[in-house]
Structures are given as structure tokens and as C-alpha cells.
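Annex B.
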Amino acid sequence: MTQPASVDIAALTQRCGAAEIRHDWSRTEIAALFGLPFADLVFLAQQVHRRRFSANEVQLSTLLSIKTGGCPEDCAYCPQSAQFDTGVEAEKLMDVEATLEAARAAKASGASRFCMGAAWRSPKDRDIEKVGRMIAEVKALGLETCATLGMLTPDQARRLRDAGLDYYNHNLDTSPEHYGAIITTRTYQDRLDTLAHVRDTGMKVCCGGIVGLGEKPEDRVGLLHSLATLPAHPESVPINMLVQVEGTPLNGQAKPDGIDFVRTIAVARIIMPASMVRLSAGREQMSDELQALAFLAGANSVFLGDKLLTTKNPGQDRDGALLAKLGITPMLYATAEIGAAAE
Ligand code: SAM
Ligand code: DTB
Ligand code: SF4
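Biotin synthase: predicted C-alpha cells.
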């Protein structure tokens, strides 16, 4: 993207360097950041990162699919939609004990947060009761808890909070303009409503999107603009690279350029300075060098383990070697983000 004429880029980069929390970002400013020379952009992201976080620490989460497949929604990227023939079989909600076993293993492998994902449009009230028991027991192991269960009512959000849920993940996925080309079974506003219900309970919000959905550069600007102008920044911002899965409408889509992906991470870091930025899905398909660039651009969280929900993630051996090579150490608790929402 070329630089928009109306932005004083020197003034903007100087202001960004202070790493202040702003909710009044304009799309023009965000587009101007995307258009910086790559070295200037990554340097600025590093400056911001170092003002808010310890430079070489990365937070480690583990994911578990507690309810796989058979989802009625039509998210064009997702292997778990019942509308696409992807070979993912629909399963029932897992037992509490089997979930706990996975949580103990996650803790032993160094994760500080355990995220439970369910392929639901929205949970039923009886699901909330069972997931609530899982949350309480996972928390009792000394792990932070996170769940991603689809749309929530205010009452469901409160019940999850009361069970001990620390974070709720619900992504905006892309810009408001591109959204309709990806999902037709729920609206952008539905997602914003769930995010507001979660925020109202006092739980922390994990909300991000996906690069590689056939979006234009302006749509990446639009996604980050939506995130950074929420009433409070999400404490955690996952930036996923689309994992292409056979049978989904987006399989075979032109793959985004790695440098553009890193730019998206860098701009997220700069405009949401106190949020954890997660280098999320898609690491299995990335080189060590691309991941290193993403960390340099301010990513400071990843999913550990050899599986995401249904697709592959680098296992312990590759990740252990990568983190050691880069001198990255695990962040025990994401304390730096506490207070980000309050500012
Ligand atoms: N069903 C719930 C929902 O959609 O809110 C929770 C689970 S859903 C799998 C969580 C997120 O995973 C999606 O919002 C999307 O951003 C991400 N995701 C799903 N499939 C993906 C894929 N193939 N590549 C990258 N990210 C993906
Ligand atoms: C998020 O933003 N990415 C994670 C997590 N939140 C739940 C999910 C990635 C799923 C990738 C496709 C799969 O494994 O099924
Ligand atoms: Fe269902 Fe979530 Fe997949 Fe969409 S992303 S199809 S809501 S599991």
C-alpha cells in the first residue's frame, strides 16, 4: 500500500513510539503504518513492544477441542462446519475427566493457559453447566482458563465467569466489508454483541482474525481498526494465518505473502500496545525464519502442542528448538496485560 497523503508520518511514528493506549485510531493512520518501509515498521513495533513487555518472553497456551465438528455455521475457512465435506467427524462434548487429563499434560509441557474450543454456533444452557465444571477443575490445577464456544448470552457469559473463566475467545476474523464473503450464518454485529457481553462480566477478551481469506490489504486495515477501536482493547489478539483444509471453500486460495503477514502482526502490536499478540494458527506451515520475524514484530504468545483444534501445530521438539534458538523464555502469567483494558 502507498502512504495516504493526509498523514504526517513522522508525527504518527513519534506518537506511536510512546506506546499509549488509544481508541480513536483512524483507518488512514493504520493504513499509513502498513505502508511504512518494512524495517521502519518492525523497528517501531519493537520499540512499542519493549515499552510494555519483557522483550524475550512469549506466553504459551495449549488448545483442546472439547467438542469437535458438526457445526451448523458456514465459516468458509473452517474444517468443523457441517456444511463442508472435510472428513472431520462430529463428536460429542468431551468428559470432564478426559479434559483434565489433557490440561495436566499441558501444564507439564510448560503452558500457562488452557483453552477449550467447541464447534458450536452457541452453547446450550446444559453445555454451560458441564463446561463450567471443566473450567473450575482446570483452574484448580493452577492454569489460566480460556474458552471459545461461539455466541453467548449475557447470562451464559456470567455463568462462565462465575465458574472461573479468565478469558473468552471470539474472533472478528476480518473487516466488516469482507465478512459477508466468509460467513453468512451470523453477522459482524452478532460477534460484537458477544464481545460486549463477555466484557461486561469483567472477563478478559481474546479477539483477533485471520490473514489469507482472500481479503484485500484494506481489509487487514479494517480488521485491526475494528479491534483497536473496541471500547477496550482485547487483552489477547490472535493473528491466524489461514490453515487451508480440503473441502472448505477457501482451500486453494492464493496464499498471502509472509511479509504482509508480519506487517499485520507489527501493526497490531503498535496500535494495541498492551495486548498480547498471538502468532496463532498456521505456524506448522511457516519457516522458523518467518516465525522469528513475527516475534521481532511484537508477537508474544503462541499455541503449544502438536494439534490446534483439528489441524497440525508444531510439536514440542520443533518449538523447543525454535524458542531455544531465539533465546525466548516462557512468560509465566500474562501480567503485563492486566490493566490494558482499564486504560
Ligand atoms: N465455534 C466457535 C467460534 O467460531 O466462535 C469457536 C471455535 S472457532 C474454530 C475459533 C476460531 O478459530 C475462528 O473464529 C477462526 O478465527 C479460527 N479458525 C478456524 N478455522 C481456521 C483455519 N482453518 N485457519 C485459521 N484459523 C481458523
Ligand atoms: C484462534 O484465534 N485460533 C485458534 C483459537 N483461536 C481457538 C483456533 C485455530 C483453529 C485452526 C483450525 C483447526 O485446527 O481446526
Ligand atoms: Fe463453527 Fe466456529 Fe468453525 Fe465457524 S469457526 S464453523 S462457528 S466451529
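Residues 71, 77-78, 117, 119-120, 148, 150, 170-171, 173, 210, 240, 242-243, 245, 281, 309 surround S-adenosylmethionine (ligand 1) (CB under 6 Å). The longest strand covers residues 57-67. Further annotation is deferred to the next reporting cycle.
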